[in-house]
Amino acid sequence: MTLKARLDASVLALKCAAEPTRLRLLALLSHGELQVGEICRILGQSQPRISRHLRLLTEAGFLDRFREQQCVYYRTPVTSVQMGWLRQLLDEMARGEPQLQRDHERMTQVIAVRGRLAARRLRSTDADGLQFAEPLLEEVGPVGVGELLDIGTGSGAVLELLARRARHAVGIDISTHALQLARARVHGAGLSHCEFHRGDMYALPVGDATFDTVTMDRVLADASRPEAVIGEAARALRGGGRLIIVEQMERLESQLPTRPLQQLRGWLTAAGLQAERLRPCPLQGGDFLIATARRGAATLEVRL
């Protein structure tokens, strides 16, 4: 693209954004993913009016639009070049603009209601999701995790725990209700650089070698083809990237009664990963296992 073409595109983008309702939409959707009906309730405007603004912003590249079964969500692209400079403007505006602050407060309320409804449908809030938080953080270490992918994200407990160390984080789950709960939990915690997508863990909707860290929380024991899940996780990892697996030992042993740790090591090796450590973690809620593997040579350590 020539310099003139880039300038023309930038001018058109600025013209598109330079409208009060659209600025409110951009400020709102930079905090998380919302449906049209939710946006209408927050802004107090009609659906046809909001839909028109959303269409214009999407066509200008300021918004991502994606479908999740019967639901359509909008959000600002986490890695968008345009949103880089526009977000600075929005942050400055938000500090002194009561309307944007009220919009954000209403969004928080809408997300909380969505989360409660999703939790009732799932009949669980995954209250025990963070009981292994301390040993998991020890395994991750003090460094950042780069681009983070959480497979089978469920309520988003692991994503909420690790996302502050990530540049960008993605949670994937097959359950729409689980994703609604995860959005409420993670976006409600102010982690706007996280996004969620419905997807099959046997065929992840992500590109090859796109993530630095991939996590799975109690996914393998319930999987019909756990080796395929690990293979997909390995495909998503960049060179030197790390896979972190959390499993409850009792559930894992019930599915793999013969040498479960040996089978797990075999699946990692078959996927082109090198096991770094298998760490048993006796906790109040049961015995857990935290396994780490990496693309690259490593020496296996079993910590007792």
Any guess at the CATH architecture of the largest domain?
A: 3-Layer(aba) Sandwich
**Named CATH topology of the largest domain:** Rossmann fold
Individual helix count: 12
Total number of domains: 2
Mind telling me the C-alpha Rg?
A: 21 Å
Order of helix and strand elements from N to C terminus: HHEHHEEHHHEHEHEEHEHHEEE
Overall pLDDT level: 85
In CATH, what is the homologous superfamily of the largest domain? Vaccinia Virus protein VP39
CATH class membership of the largest domain: Alpha Beta
Query: Which stretches are low in confidence, meaning pLDDT under 50 for 5 or more residues running?
Result: 297-304
Structural description of this entry:
With about 300 residues, the protein is α/β, with parallel strands linked by helices. It folds into 2 domains: about 120 residues, Winged helix-like DNA-binding domain superfamily/Winged helix DNA-binding domain (Arc Repressor Mutant, subunit A); about 170 residues, Rossmann fold. The chain is about 45% helix and about 25% strand. The chain has 12 helices and 11 strands. The strands form 2 sheets. An 8-stranded mixed β-sheet has the order 6-5-4-7-8-10-9-11, sandwiched between helices. It has a 3-stranded antiparallel β-sheet with strand order 1-3-2. Strand 2 and strand 3 form a beta hairpin. Helix 5 crosses helix 6. The radius of gyration is 21 Å and the shape is elongated. The termini are far apart. The C terminus is likely disordered.
